[in-house]
What does this fold into?
Amino acid sequence: MRDVKILVAELVGTMILVMGGPGSAILAADRIHMAGVAFAFGLSLLIAAYTIGPISGCHINPAVTLAMWVTRKIPTRSVPAYIIGQIIGAFAGASVIFAIANGIDGFSAKNNFAANAWGSKNGFYPVGSMIVVEIIFTALLVFVVLSTTSQKFTASQGGVVIGLTLTLIHLVTIPVDNTSVNPVRSLATAVFQRGDALEQIWAFILFPLVGGLVGVLVWLAVDDARLEDTMLKSDALISVRNEMTKVADSVEGALDKAGDRLD
It folds into this structure.
């Protein structure tokens, strides 16, 4: 029963995100412009966080679910409920927007359905820029999510910070590739837009997931959490972590000595 509630909650939350985010780009971009679309994404996540957060944690993004699973914040058995709910919710949200936009004279999903893409022929940056954006900015989102779900933040504080983070991400990266950082958001819009959006969809699934794992590593580097308590535990990573700790200790010791001399 618990996993059914998670599935439904993630479905509703992802539907809100897609209706509010891509929906604003499709239906209202000519009036609210890029900044308005960016804020629509952030507000959608904020609304979802406050409504379904107590039920599922409001992942509404497979990259976030991957990070939560890797850090053992959710059990393996619940992962399918999260992902299935997110996929259904994304397509449900996209279907609502399509039904609305399809009534407009001259509308064509093939030309404008807020899909992600790269390349000058699509009006965006080259593939290398897209890869950097999707890895680094998904890592930023995941890092903030992991940080704000710790005991240092209340649930209300976390929702605001995560929503503002998604807004910032879109303000910076919409011109690069129309901003994914969320595989199901990209998949749903690509299916409706078709063409290059479908041909390139693999990248907007793969690189946000890679970014999610990078975000976990950054979080482990600055948080009190232990690598040994996550699914990333390996001799190689533990060795790297130990070497980094030695370097950090050496730097701290040198700084302490320098401070003593100045005193």
Q: What stands out?
A: The mean pLDDT is 91. The chain has two domains: 2-226, 233-263.
